[in-house]
Design brief:
255 residues; mainly alpha; two-stranded antiparallel sheet
């Protein structure tokens, strides 16, 4: 009887592992599909090779790409009649420490920008030509909201059944959805290399987005809402485009 129970347990765990892998692969493919469609949509309408149909350079590209990051996930959620709470589109559970959340974001973004400046890397080419008003509207707000609904909302929402499955990293038990969310978010920034970013910039941005993704996913899982993840994302973008350069200027004595 003992052997039979052990065998049943082993088979059950094996089936669970296969199902978990299938869900991870399916979620990755859905995310990759949305990313490719969104990027092609932005490029098709703004790149000179295709017209451009819409003028405006990087600002238009950023607007159109993030419009797709926002509309495609929301469309999928609504068409599949998914419960909004499952995808983090609900009021946060528990008390939010906004000082801690926003502070982490400002530090992550600032450190990344300072490293890029110190190393002499060329920085993110997607931000070239953006004025302060465009950065505030398109990067700080629109991109932060759209990317969080895409990654922490739709994709992490699909992986909710795997929240109980964890991996121990540095004595911390981290769930599969958090790990997936962080790594996927970093991976979708690697193609910046093909749009003019150098290796140092890509490496720094990858490390920054994985770190941001980890905290954003952890807050989303803990509070069952994407609101805190949007907050830390906004703070990171603010840190990277404003606070970081100011801190560096102060450190080197130029202001």
């Amino acid at each position: 009887m003992y052997i039979k129970k052990s065998e049943e347990k082993f088979v059950g765990e094996e089936i669970r592992s296969v199902n978990s892998l299938n869900l991870l692969v399916m979620t990755f493919l859905i995310g990759l599909g949305i990313y490719v469609v969104a990027k092609l949509f932005g490029l098709f309408l703004t790149t000179e090779a295709f017209g451009p149909i819409i003028d405006g350079g990087n600002s238009s590209n950023l607007l159109l790409t993030n419009f797709m990051f926002l509309s495609l996930p929301l469309g999928i959620i609504l068409l599949t009649r998914g419960k909004l709470a499952q995808y983090g589109l609900s009021k946060p559970i528990g008390k939010l420490n906004w000082g801690y959340i926003l502070g982490i974001g400002l530090v992550i973004g600032s450190i990344a920008t300072i490293i890029i400046i110190v190393t002499g890397a060329n920085g993110n080419p997607a931000l070239t030509g953006l004025g302060i008003r465009e950065k505030i509207i398109l990067l700080w707000f629109f991109a932060s909201i759209a990317e969080e609904i895409f990654v922490r909302g739709l994709l992490q929402g699909y992986l909710n059944p795997l929240e109980s499955m964890k991996i121990s990293i540095a004595k911390q038990n981290i769930s599969y959805p958090v790990i997936f969310s962080a790594i996927f978010f970093g991976l979708i920034h690697i193609p910046l290399f093909f749009f003019g970013a150098d290796l140092i910039t890509v490496g720094v941005i990858f490390a920054m987005t994985v770190t941001l993704g980890f905290f954003a996913a952890s807050f989303r899982e803990k509070h069952q809402s994407i609101l805190p993840s949007i907050g830390i994302h906004m703070a990171t973008n603010i840190g990277g485009t404003m606070v970081g350069p100011i801190v560096y200027a102060i450190l080197v004595g130029t202001i």
